[in-house]
Amino acid sequence: MQDPSLKFRRRALKPQLLGIRRAALATTALIPAALMAQIAFADPVAGPLIFDDGGETSYGADITGDIDVEVRSGTVILKGMNTFTGATIISEDATLALDGQGRVNQSSGVAVNGTFDVSSASSATVNAISGAGVIDVGDKYLNINASTGSFAGNISGTGGVNVNAGDLILTGTSEVTGQFGTGTGASLTVGAGGTSGWISANVLNFGALTFDRSDGGTYSGKITGTGNIFFTGGGSYVLTGENSNSGSVSISDGTSVQLGDGGATGKLGGSGQNSGSIANDGMLIYNRSSATTYAGVISGAGELRQIGGGRLTLNGQNSYSGGTTVEAGELLVGGTDVYASATVSGPVSVYDGAMLGGFGTINGDLTILDGGALGAGNASAIGTLSVNGDLDFAAGSRFNVKVNGGTGASDLLAVTGTATLAGSVAHIGFEGIYDPVSTYTILTAGDINGEFDDVSSDFAFLYPVLSYSETDVVLSLIRNDIEFTAITTTPNQFAVAAAVEQLGGGSPLYGAVAMLGEDEANEANEAFDSLSGETHASTGSFLMGNSALLRDAIGQRMRNMETQGSAGVTISSKGAPATATTPVWVSSFGSWSDIDGDSNVEGISGSSGGLMAGVDRQLDSGWLLGAAFGLGRSSFDLDDGSASVDSNDWHLGLYADRSWGRLTLRSGLGFTSHDVSSERDVSVGAISEQQEADYDARTVQAFGELGYRIDRGQAALEPFINLAHVRFSSDDIAEDGGAAALEISPESRSTTFATLGLRGTHDLSLQGTPARLEGAVAWRRALGDLGASSDNSFIGGGGFTVSGADLPRDVVTLEAGLGLALAEGSDFSIGYAGQFGDGSRQDGVRATLKMRF
Known about the structure:
mainly beta
């Protein structure tokens, strides 16, 4: 028998072009591994070109001609731009690898029963793939360009596969983690109707993607693109990825698709107009714990189930006919009034613990089972839900209703058939303004059978009543006998609540409070606090406390004149100055203060700053007489941030000073004009306003101090006693801002401050510059009634008195300072003053420049 093979000796072959004709090779060409030449088959050859050397062969030349290439053993690496036109066959124990520009016939298929390695190829393209081996793409992509092929093996790597034309059927499990792609007109099919074939990578689909298994599976990848998706084979598929495909989806009869596995992900379709459509002839299941929206159209003869704990919103005009079950979570048919045309098909059943709502239409009968709930609109908006069929409320079911007292609107169920009533109506409080004469139609039907078993409301001050006709159910809200004051916990809240009650049902404030929920006691009391206007009562305390800034500036000036160059905190000098000059002085000051609140009153935090200037003259009689003028700005906020007050301040002071030996008398009169602006936020249910007011106020004070000097060499001490009487008054106040605006009566308050303390000073030289260190400590007590209050009333009546932040009764004051004699006739000083009381603190700084002319 004639040997059908052509034999080569490796020693005789040179790396040049080798031509083989049919006469020389009857059936098969056996190519030694060492052959590195270009092989050209000039005529058709009956048999394949076989690599069967068993080792690793790297072949860089080109293979051309009409010939099949088969790798039977070992590893063959093709690096050439091969143009042979036959098939490529990889046996079970063999590996064919493409490197760089290396390739196989791009117009014929590759039968992969061993390993096809394209991880090092610059561009790997085949006509089709078949077999049950392994394809390693590495981080590259394998392109399939034309024919249909079925592959039962494993595709691995971080790259992917592009099906540019034809149909690739995968019946093995592909572990590639990159991406599958389908071009227009191409298709990728996972499975072939059995129980094998799966992918986990993402799919960019511009053609068709088909899942075809009898048992289904869980796909966690992400599908994008405009291509179509088909689910068939009778299996149960679970998709947990956030797919954003915009093409159509088809679910065949007997097949189910579940979106989500109870977690927060799993969907089909993009958003808005890019949602695509779903032809459901099987079963479509939503099982998510989070909210999701589908705006496309669901058609077909299949069923839709909502079984997840989250909210499913369907905004499309769905026409599927298999019915709908809401077994858990919530289904909204039309999420807002923009999607009032949304529909789902009946029959619809709502199970125990589930909820149905929306703005759209139920096309078919609707049944609310024991424990199920039905409402219209959504959680934040009133709406109408229509039922084109019969409505049946089972015993134990619930109808949730929202009303808006301000507009008279309410949720509505519009039923074309018969409404059979049982269960309960739960009125869900919705912010608004209560109108005692309003009624709300909550259900209309072609016919009404029975009544609801119960009706309840979550309002604290209203109770609901239902009335029935043959076609309507009407809800009325009646004021109960619980007074507004019953839920208050502080005197201010009680006073405001009583005043609001006096306004009566025609008042927006009364209506807003009446519609607060019974579980919102804290909200109601916060509303009463915001209505109180306590900030006006606290204003007097703050500005009276700031009166010390004028006293301190003038007192500091008098002590400076006594010492002729000391500054900060000073003591009496050993004698009056000999000069008769007229000094001019300028002092800047700033302070930061806090007064704590309590359960009834909010604390305040504020700051003040300004500039004082004055002139004085020493008389021959020993008296120092002077006048001062200043301006400043003060402001404070309530600690909860709900109100603020600003004041532009104008100061005027007169003072007199006289020493008799070691004893010194310091006295003065002060007047401050306050140009006050206030803002406060009011929030009561549906009312949210900002109240503003501008008004005038003033502070008048008289003060005197006696000090006795005790000299100790370079140091000196001065015990002192100080009395100051302060009177604050304000004009009447009218706020501008809406229904919660207040009118505040004029206020007048007086307080006397008594201070007992000790000052000390020590003279020294700082590099030749005369200087003085000074300090003081004192106890100050405020005498009389310190209670801060204001008499307020709502426009139209409802007067009440509220408290504000009080001045502290007792404080400890600390002062420290340093004075420098800068040059002939000029001195500079800087000082600190602090006040510390129970629940209060004030820190201040001061700088003074004195010049003598």
